[in-house]
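Appendix B. Chain record.
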Amino acid sequence: MDERLIEILLQSFTKILIPCIKITIPLTIISYVLGVALALFLALVQVANVKGLKQFARFYIWIFRGTPLLVQLFIIFFGLPSVGIMLDAFPSAVIAFALNLAAYNAEVIRSAILAVPEGQTEAAYMAGLSYPQLMIRIVLPQAARIAFPPLFNSLIGLTKDTSLASNITVIEMFSVAQQVAARYYEPFALYCEAAFIYLIICTLLTWLQSYMEKKLTWKQPQEKGEVQVNA
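Structure tokens predicted for this chain:
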């Protein structure tokens, strides 16, 4: 590696890292929080078998799981203006990522809720708990433990998917890497540098996931049949 390329990589590292901190990470966090909140709503209306809303949730999930994320980004940013809805690039990306993420995570949360033993539900009703109390006190805490690994995996996936936002003019990390690569005519090295930053972020998230999973692990003693929870 010659001195010129090393100098370019050192100078470009900060230029790429700054939009990562200012745009990519906030875009990921905001989209993820909104997506999980919507996913929880979609899962609950299906489990509760709310007429009308359940059919809407199934239709919604079918649409967003069956179409590419990039196409959804283009429809929201480039398509909606044709029907009078104008959105800036960043909120368009947030909406697209959140809606797409919600469709996948809704199925994760629904499956986790259904995995909670029915005997606990029956016992809660016999104890006089209402349906909201049952969900908040009994079902959702246990479902959260079951759903945590796939939900966290979706966060890692979303971190990488934010690079697609460059296609709708969001000045995030990858779009800056493209600009710098076009300026210095070193696409391979600069794209590798951007990939390295993504790799570092996802590695840190993976370590965090591993640590939190250990804290949330169910432990079953060998001699007793009772289930114990790691606090």
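Further analysis of this model is presented in Appendix C.
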